[in-house]
Design a protein that fits this description.
By secondary structure, this protein is an alpha+beta fold. It folds into two domains: 7-126, Roll (Nuclear Transport Factor 2, Chain: A); 134-320, Distorted Sandwich (Glucose Permease (Domain IIA)), CATH 2.70.70.10. It has six helices and 18 strands. It has helices at 29-34, 44-49, 53-58, 62-67, 70-80, 134-138, and strands at 7-10, 13-16, 87-95, 98-105, 111-116, 122-126, 140-145, 152-157, 177-180, 204-206, 211-217, 237-242, 248-254, 266-267, 272-275, 287-292, 304-307, 318-320. The strands form five sheets. An eight-stranded antiparallel sheet has the order 14-11-12-13-16-9-8-18, with no helix packed on it. Strands 3-4-5-6 form a four-stranded antiparallel sheet, with no helix packed on it. Strands 1-2 form a two-stranded antiparallel sheet. It is globular, with a radius of gyration of 21 Å. It starts with 6 loop residues before the first strand and ends with a strand. Mean pLDDT is 90; it is low at 1-18 and 20-27.
Length: 323
């Protein structure tokens, strides 16, 4: 990761974000656990609530401390705590040797996100003041969808706050999902610069509901993972389906030349529409899925998706095909 810090009130967000390489503190994990200030990762919200700034700061990485002073951290935490009673764990996800935790408060306007290494050292710490959209959260699609997948997938982004779904702050993408495949807490095996190393690359993608295909793209090159993303054609290869009721689904980042439907085709729920790829604004193979009130996905509103059996995928959930 690139080391960086941003602190202050920006566009309604109070945030402290500092991250760096996997550097270690002078004390190792066992030494830290003998320190009276030491706390388990699960106890971070309590440490924030009780403004144990010194304890939190002592447990951060060297690169974090290079980016922010203890005085800045203390000022931000005091401001952040105003009006908060408690936090609830939203997700815990292991990613490349780190455990990423997310908590939100009862009003869903304050959130804590942090990454701990195997010695419980904090390498990333993010405390946003979050905007909420309770009215549109309740407005579900009339169409009942299934997940656009076969087999078992992992919910990388999904949910109704920005900590579990980074799309949420953008009206056009608010209820979008990103899905990928993982084994042993990794999305690939082998060379991470090759698409073929990723478990989800080339997997079948299916129609989430019956409808008529209104737009496709299939000629965009797949990106090299860990390389540059295609900013000019953000959806990459995609399929847009009209399901009636002014509800249009988008499945994006498909593999080049893999789209199996044409404009005007009628598809049934579960039909294969293409293969998962890494095209468009995508850093590694995954499925991007959302439903909007217009086929113009750059100038329309995202709709919260009603899934079969009341499935509600949230970041960190492992999901199964509903066929």
């Amino acid at each position: 990761m690139n080391k960086g810090i941003l602190i202050g009130i920006l566009g309604g967000f109070l945030l402290i974000s500092a991250c760096g390489t996997s550097d270690k503190q002078a004390t190792n994990g066992s030494d830290k656990q003998q320190d009276e200030d030491y706390f388990q990762p699960e106890e971070l919200p309590e440490a924030v609530s009780y403004e144990r700034t010194e304890a939190i700061y002592k447990q951060t990485s060297a690169s974090f401390q290079d980016s922010i002073s203890i005085e800045e951290l203390e000022e931000a935490i005091i401001s952040f705590n105003e009006g908060v009673d408690s936090y609830t764990l939203e997700s815990q996800i292991p990613i490349e040797g780190m455990d990423y935790y997310t908590w939100i408060d009862e009003t869903e306007t304050r959130g804590i996100s942090a990454a701990f290494d195997e010695n419980d050292i904090i390498h990333y710490f993010y405390i946003p003041i979050m905007e909420t959209f309770p009215e549109t959260d309740k407005q579900m699609t009339e169409t009942e969808f299934i997940l656009p997948i076969n087999e078992e997938w992992f919910t990388w982004w999904g949910g109704t706050n920005e900590l579990v779904n980074y799309h949420y702050v953008v009206e056009e993408q608010r209820y979008a999902y990103d899905f990928l495949m993982r084994e042993n807490n990794q999305s690939y095996s082998g060379d991470p610069t090759k698409n073929e190393s990723y478990y989800s690359f080339g997997k079948e993608v299916i129609a989430p509901a019956s409808g008529t295909v209104v737009e496709i793209e299939s000629k965009i090159e797949d990106n090299e993972p860990v390389g540059e993303m295609n900013e000019k054609e953000p959806f990459g290869n995609y399929v847009i389906i009209d399901h009636g009721n002014d509800e249009y689904s988008l499945i994006a980042h498909l593999k080049r030349e893999s789209v199996e439907v044409a404009v005007g085709d009628t598809v049934s729920q579960g039909d294969i529409v293409g293969l998962n790829g890494n095209s468009g604004h995508s850093s590694e193979p995954h499925i991007h899925f959302q439903v909007n009130d217009s086929p113009d996905f750059f100038n329309s509103k995202s709709i919260n998706i009603q899934f079969k059996d009341d499935v509600r995928p949230t970041r960190g959930d492992v999901i199964q095909s509903q066929l």
